[in-house]
Design a protein that fits this description.
CATH superfamily: RRM (RNA recognition motif) domain
Order of helices and strands: HEHEHEEEE
CATH architecture: 2-Layer Sandwich
Helix content: 25-40%
CATH class: Alpha Beta
Strand order of the largest sheet: 1-2-6-3
Structural class: alpha+beta
Number of domains: 1
Distance between the termini: 16 Å
Length: 96
């Protein structure tokens, strides 16, 4: 597995993300917590052969989960919204 595959974990395919993709040419990925915007940009460009214009990231805190008396938390995760140059797209995005 290459270093790019360890940065980009998997695409996030939801109804809201599909609208972002069709209207604004933005794609949403779950990425490694320690990944920087520059690393994410480079990984998307190398893996999908597209030109990246902009990268926005956010850390989503894990939700509290209970099982009886025990309380735990889901792990934190990081999302990246990547804007691709107009006229380009990532093939098989929902099928990856």
């Amino acid at each position: 597995m290459s270093k790019y595959h360890s940065i980009i974990r998997y695409p996030s395919v939801t109804e809201k993300n599909t609208l972002l993709r069709s209207e604004q040419n933005k794609y949403v990925f779950e990425v490694a917590l320690g990944a920087t915007k520059i690393e994410i940009k480079e990984a998307v460009q190398k893996l999908f052969s597209v030109d990246v214009e902009d990268v926005n990231t956010m850390v989503v805190k894990g939700k509290k989960k209970r099982t009886g008396r025990n309380v735990g938390y889901r792990p934190d995760r990081k999302k990246a919204i990547v804007k691709i140059k107009a006229g380009q797209n990532i093939d098989k995005f929902g099928e990856v």
